[in-house]
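Justification of resources, computational component.

The compute hours requested in this renewal are based largely on the per-chain cost of generating structure records like the one below. Each record pairs the submitted sequence with a full C-alpha cell output. That output is archived, and it is also reused by downstream analysis tasks.
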Amino acid sequence: MNNKIEILKSNTILFTGIELVKDSLSEWLIDEIYEIDEKNKNEQILKDKLNSKDDLIKLKEFLDREIKHQDDALYDSCVEELREMKEDLRWSSSKDGKFIIKLEDWVLDARNKISKQGWYKIFIGRSIIDPKELNIGGWVRNNRESVEIKAQIDSWVPPVSPGYMFEIE
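The structure output for this chain reads:
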C-alpha cells in the first residue's frame, strides 16, 4: 500500500518546499566570505534577504570591494549566484511568477489544514506538467469522503480550480 501511495503522490503533484526564489547567497559561500575576514560577519547585506534591485547592487558592490581581489574562485561563485538572484527577482515580479508564488503559498497552507483534518493520504501540489495548475489527489474511503474533501478544499478558496485525482481504497 505504501508503494501505491508514493506512486499516486508522485504522479499527482510537484513537490514543494524548494526555494522558488533565491534571495541570499548560499550558506557555504557566506562561510567562505567570513573566513576571508572576520569583519565580514558585520556586513548586513550578507544577512538580509535580498528582495530588490538595490539589494543586489549593494551585494555586488560589497563583493567587488571585499572579495574580488582576495579570492577569484569565491568571487566567481558569488557572482554566479547573484545572476541567479537577479533572474529570480525578475521572474518573481512577472505575472506568472506572482501567480505561482501565490499558488505555492496556498498549497503550503492547505497542506497544513489537511493534516489537521487527519487526511494523511491526500496530496496537494502544483502540477508536474504545468506549475500554474493545482492537483489534489490521494486515497479516500468512499465517494462520500471524496465529496466532503472537495467541499472543504473549495471552502479554502484555491487560487485556481483544482484537478482532483482520488482513488477509493
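The first strand starts at residue 122 and ends at 126. DSSP finds six helices and three strands in the chain.
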